[in-house]
Design brief:
Shape: globular
Number of domains: 2
Radius of gyration: 19 Å
Oligomer: single chain
Helix content: 25-40%
Strand content: 15-25%
Structural class: alpha/beta
CATH topology of the largest domain: Ribulose 1,5 Bisphosphate Carboxylase/Oxygenase
CATH superfamily of the largest domain: Ribosomal protein L1/L10, rRNA-binding domain
C-alpha cells in the first residue's frame, strides 16, 4: 500500500522516466521534503555480469562536494601511525580493543583504514566486515601507510563503490539541502569514474540506466545522454 507522500508525488510527477539531467535533480530535491535532511542516492545499472570476477566494477571517487554525511572512521594502527590518524581526525584508533569489539558485534562505523602490518589481525574479521563493505582494501586506498591522507580524503567525501549481485552501483551522493549544482557535479564525478572502469570483457551497452532518489522519495530515471554529454 502506497503512503500518502508517495501517492502525492506520483500525482505531481506522473512522468519520471528518461528525464533531462537537470530536471531530474530539480524534481528529486523538490520532493525530498521529509522532516530530516534526506540523502540523495544514485543507482547506476551496468551491463555486466558480477558473477564473473572480471566483470565486477569497483572503485573509489572523491565527490567534489562530499556526501553531507558525518563519516565515522576507525583506523587500525599503532605507535606513530596511530598518532597521525588521531591528528587527521579519525574517530577511533587502536588495534586489539577494536578487534574484540567487532568480534562482539560492534560495527558502528562507516569506514575502516589500516596499515598493512595490521591486516593479519583484521583478517579474522572478514566474515563480519566483508558483507558490510567495511573490510580494508588496498585498491580502495584503505590499506596504507599514509593513514593521515586516507582519513582526510574519506572525511572530505571520498567514497568506495562496487556493483551488487544485479550489476547495480548504489551510492549516496549528497543531501537534499545541497544545491542542485552541487548534486549534479557529484553525480558527474561518480558516473565518470564508473565509465572509466568499464571491464574490457563487458559486451553490449555498459551504462544501462541512471536513477536518483531521496531517502523517502521516488526514483527519477535520468536520460543517460544528458549526463554523458557533460563528461569529457
Amino acid at each position: 500500500m502506497k503512503s500518502k507522500r508517495v501517492k502525492k508525488q506520483l500525482e505531481m510527477v506522473p512522468n519520471r522516466v528518461n528525464l533531462p539531467f537537470a530536471e531530474a535533480v530539480k524534481l528529486c530535491k523538490e520532493h525530498a521534503n521529509a522532516k530530516f535532511d534526506e540523502t540523495i542516492e544514485i543507482a547506476v545499472n551496468l551491463g555486466v555480469d558480477p558473477r564473473h570476477a572480471d566483470q565486477i566494477v569497483r572503485g573509489v571517487v572523491a565527490l567534489p562536494h562530499g556526501t553531507g554525511k558525518e563519516v565515522r572512521v576507525l583506523v587500525f594502527a599503532a605507535d606513530d601511525k596511530a598518532e597521525e590518524a588521531k591528528a587527521a581526525g579519525a574517530d577511533y584508533v587502536g588495534v586489539d580493543e577494536f578487534v574484540d569489539k567487532i568480534q562482539n558485534g560492534w560495527t558502528d562505523i562507516d569506514v575502516i583504514i589500516a596499515t598493512p602490518n595490521m591486516m593479519g589481525k583484521i583478517g579474522r574479521l572478514g566474515r563480519i566486515l566483508g558483507p558490510r563493505g567495511l573490510m580494508p582494501n588496498p585498491k580502495s586506498g584503505t590499506v596504507t601507510m599514509d593513514v593521515a591522507s586516507a582519513v582526510k580524503e574519506v572525511k572530505a567525501g571520498k567514497i568506495d563503490f562496487r556493483t551488487d549481485k544485479k550489476g547495480v552501483v548504489h551510492a549516496g551522493i549528497g543531501k537534499a539541502s545541497f544545491g542542485a549544482e552541487q548534486l549534479e557535479e557529484n553525480i558527474l564525478a561518480i558516473v565518470q569514474k564508473i565509465l572509466q572502469l568499464r571491464p574490457s570483457v563487458a559486451k553490449g551497452a555498459y551504462l544501462e540506466k541512471i536513477t536518483i532518489s531521496s531517502t523517502m522519495g521516488l526514483g527519477y530515471d535520468i536520460d543517460k545522454a544528458s549526463v554523458t554529454a557533460l563528461i569529457n
